[in-house]
Amino acid sequence: MPVRVVCFNQEGCMGCEEQAPINREVSSALGIEIKEIDVLKNREYIGKYGLHVTPTIVIFDGEKEVKRFERVVHREELEAAIREAGI
């Protein structure tokens, strides 16, 4: 199964605003999509994935969660985690 990366965020979150350009850089560098989901507009994800803070970035291998970051993640660390997951 392909590796998927999802960033759960919300409007007005300073950490989320800091994470957004990092996600764009990583997406471009690795040629992958990092899906952005606003949890205030999509509240069902809060319970489904046990979200406590934003930004939360989850890396999936197929449907299996393989890595989770509950904070702003720097480019190098995020790229390394995605590569480790199989990109």
Arithmetic mean of pLDDT = 96
Shape: globular
* Unreliable spans: none
DSSP helix count? 3
Q: Which fold does the CATH topology refer to?
A: Glutaredoxin
> How many domains is the backbone divided into?
1
**SSE series:** EHEHEEH
Largest sheet: 4 strands, mixed
In CATH, the architecture is: 3-Layer(aba) Sandwich
Summarize this, please?
This protein is an alpha+beta fold and 87 residues long.
Please provide a written account of the structure:
- There is one protein chain.
- The protein is an alpha+beta fold and 87 residues long.
- It has a single domain (3-85), classed as Glutaredoxin.
- 38% of the residues lie in helices and 28% in strands.
- It contains 3 helices and 4 strands.
- It has helices at 14-30, 44-48, 75-85; strands spanning 3-9, 34-38, 56-61, 64-69.
- It is globular.
- 23% of the residues are buried.
